[in-house]
Design brief:
six-stranded parallel beta sheet; 47% helix; 13 helices; Deoxyhypusine Synthase; alpha/beta; single chain
Length: 313
Amino acid sequence: MMQKVRDIKLEKKITADGLVRQFYDAGGFSAKKLAVGVNIIEEMFKDKDCTRFLSLPAAPISTGMRGVIKDLVKNKQVDVVITTCGLLDHDVARLWKDYYHGDFMMDDVELHKKGIYRLGNILVPKESYGEIIEDKVIPVLEKMYKEGKKQISTKEFVWALGESMQKEKNREDSIIYWAWKNQIPMFIPGPTDGAVGSQVWLFSQKHSDFKFDIIADEQELASIVFDAKKMGALMIGGGISKHHTIWWAQFGGGLEYAVYITTAVEYDGSLSGAQTREAISWGKLKEKAKHITIEGDATVLLPLMLAAVLERI
């Protein structure tokens, strides 16, 4: 039987969930995919046997979407976070300094002369990035070293950063703070690919026995995957964080639930553009997994989707 296409009705007091439910009945290309994604996330969040992974890159954390990710971690709606070093950069920097609105078409030569970095349409003054990160991260590394911690996992490092924020005024805005507070493991498979990770390299120039132990992270990920009854993942963007999530999922028999939001295309064979269905062939998703790939900008889609889910649960 075929489902009829129904028109969307924009009422005065429509809610996020009310709109998303109409998306499902209306069809409409990406709108229908978004509605399916909300249904999958809702089911994944309600499944008490499911270990829930969140993977994402750094760029959205320079925007207001940082608050959406923070709430997922604060409210314990995810069990594991796999991300990039840049998330640490933006989360740490924005605890003490502000980022600003810009435009994609701004003059980058002029911005360089003024000491302002551009990340899409977000502006990051130099004093809001490298300097503040060095000031705040090095004392954490010194404390760990004095305590005899000389080979650290990225999870351990993230939690140490979070613990160091507990007396800060804006601590509850931080993803890292809540990861430590709720003891939610956050793994950084590419730990030196950013300003925070570079501080570890810099610190090691004076303390050559201090280093990341990424194998310790892999051991803990293995334990999480092997102990999981079921697994699901909300994946934002592609790259190393997405791949690390599905790579480990295959060793536990694959994901039961998968929602992927991406702007990448499939035709070039890239991991970032690979649809969730491709992962079934690798055993990274179960053959009968509930999954959807949604094409679009997560800074638009994710807040709407999670607002709808929160109304339901």
